[in-house]
Amino acid sequence: MDAFYAAVEQRDHPEWRGKPVVVGAPPEERGVVAAASYEARKFHIRSAMPMSQALRLCPEAIRVSPNFAAYKAASDVIHAIFREETPRVEPVSLDEAYLDVSEPAPDFPAAEVIGRRIKANIKRRTQLNASVGIGPNKFLAKIASDYDKPDGFFVIRPEDVLDFLAPLPVRVIPGVGPKTERRLHLLGIETIGLLRAQTLKALQDAVGQKHGAQLYELARGIDESPVVSHWIRKSLSQEQTFAQDLWDRNRMRAILQDLSREVAEGLAQERLAGRTVGIKVRFHDFRIATRALTLDHPTRDEAEIRSAALYLLDRLDMQHRRVRLLGVRVSGFDSPRPKGKQSTPRDRQMTFW
User: Fold this and answer.
1) Residue 203 falls inside a structural domain
2) Which residues is 98 bridged to in the sheet?
3) Which residues are within 8 A (CB) of 300 and not within 5 positions of it... i.e. 6 or more apart?
4) Domain presence at residue 224
5) What is the pLDDT of residues 183-239, one digit of tens each?
6) 67 with 9: CB under 8 angstroms?
7) Do residues 161 and 140 make contact, with C-beta atoms less than 8 angstroms apart?
8) Which one of 3, 23, 189, 341 has the lowest number of neighbouring Cβ atoms within 10 Å?
9) Do 60 and 94 fall into the same domain?
10) Which of 96, 181, 190, 262 is catalytic?
């Protein structure tokens, strides 16, 4: 979907159409931009930007707090439209999904008919614009969906893959963030065509074994990952960002207790229990620390989650550091304890959240 949250707001508030709209919490609450309309993007406003910065770039922007009930309602209609065409749907978010239409569509012309029907039905039933991309695999379909935004429709046929990819910048490849892009640029690799000219060993030496092998294949338009229609939750978390940085450790402990209760309630609602309890701490300088504790049994018990979260907080070096965000997470729903594993908990640095 195109600028989904902002588009829903403009649909529901006709007086905002054609004007710069940014969705997110107010700057005094340290909000960030969750979505920006295309009118706002002309002022270089982007998602995840601090709201205070966005409003400096465009003082006349209309800032609106998120209305997730409205976004979820629109998303439900959109995903229902997907499933009218195929059961093989992999949701990515409220406003994005991969569809495998290889069974109802024997060839690319038939796939185009389905894509245009989906696009038209979304417009008719939600009054929102979708950008559709069609390709031989998920990687190429994703690039196609972004290529002709907004309100786009683009097809990458198998015979056109190599020529189409060659001039594109390497940053369009999923997994190529600023750090990898800089590393490739230092090697003189700025386009996918130049990336394709590298040997597998050269790429693995540059960015590591696994990532190098992935880039080697994607540069050739190869992506064997399937559309996975059955999504399994891997974690459940709650976070809170503070209007004023926290110094008081007792206040932090109280907030972690509240977050632990919310996580426990969510686990109970979804009938889940996890072995790993983690916390996330974002400091005043935006640095993030995460810690996790693996238990010898799955839990959804509030007291156990709270105890683990407070234990992890006490293990962090907080001296002279202000805190702007705290979070609690439970994961490990499908990872039973291996035989012979010691029952004593362990804590470790986590590299994900």
Assistant:
1) yes
2) 90
3) 264, 267, 268, 272, 273, 274, 330
4) no
5) 999 999 999 999 999 999 999 999 999 999 999 999 999 999 999 887 677 899 999
6) yes
7) yes
8) 341
9) no
10) 96
CB 292 within 8 A of CB 348: yes
Question: Exposed (0-12), middle (13-18) or buried (19+): which is 277, by Cβ within 10 Å?
Answer: buried
Q: pLDDT value at position 334?
A: 62
Q: Is residue 226 part of a domain?
A: no
The pLDDT of residue 352 = 28
**Residues in the chain with pLDDT values less than 50:** 335-353
184 neighbors 171 (Cβ within 8 angstroms) = no
Q: What is the CATH number of the domain that holds 338?
A: 3.30.1490.100
pLDDT of residue 232: 74
User: Would you state the pLDDT for residue 318?
Assistant: 79
One domain for residues 241 and 344: yes
Tell me 209's DSSP state: H
Residue type, 64: V
Q: What is the pTM of this model?
A: 0.70
Number of domains in the chain: 4
248 and 315 belong to one structural domain: yes
In the sheet where 35-36 sits, what is the strand order?
A: 35-36, 21-23, 62-64
Contact 223, 139 (CB under 8 A): yes
CA distance 235 to 221: 32
The pLDDT of residue 267: 92
The neighbour count for residue 17, using CB atoms within 10 Å, is: 13
pLDDT in tens, 300-313: 999 999 999 999 99
Residue-number span of the structural domain to which 26 is assigned? 4-66
Does 96 participate in catalysis according to the annotation? yes
